Amino acid sequence: MQAQQALSTPILNLLRRGVLLLLLLMLPLAGCGSVPKRHPLPPNGGQLAAIPGLAEKARFWGDEVPEYLIEALQAATRQEIQESR
C-alpha cells in the first residue's frame, strides 16, 4: 500500500503540473479566440458621417484653431468666458 502511495505521489505531482501548464497555455488562446469580428468604416465613410446641426463645426484638425471658434471667442465678453470655465 505504501509503495503504491509513494508511486502515485510523483505521478500526481506531474499531473498537477501538466494541468497547470495546460491551463496557463490555454488561457491566452481563449482570449484570442473570442475577439468579435470588426466591421470597419468604408474608405469614404469618414467624409459622409455628419452630426445634425454641427455639420461644419464638428470636425477640425487639432493643430489649427477653426475660424468659427476665433469669431465666437472675439464676440464673447470676458464675463461669458469666465462663466464657461
**What spatial form do the alpha-carbon principal axes imply?**
elongated
Number of strands: 0
Total of helices = 4
Helix and strand content put the structural class at mainly alpha
Helix content: 55-70%
**N- and C-termini, Cα separation:** 81 Å
Question: What do these coordinates show?
Answer:
60% of the residues lie in helices and 0% in strands. It is an all-alpha fold and 85 residues long. The protein has a domain of 33 residues. The longest helix is centred in the N-terminal third of the chain and has 32 residues. The model has no long low-confidence stretch (mean pLDDT 77).
Write out key terms for the chains shown.
4 helices; 85 residues; mainly alpha; 0% strand; 60% helix; elongated
SSE layout and pairing:
Elements: H1 2-33, H2 45-48, H3 67-75, H4 78-83
Structure in a nutshell:
With 85 residues, the protein is mostly helical.
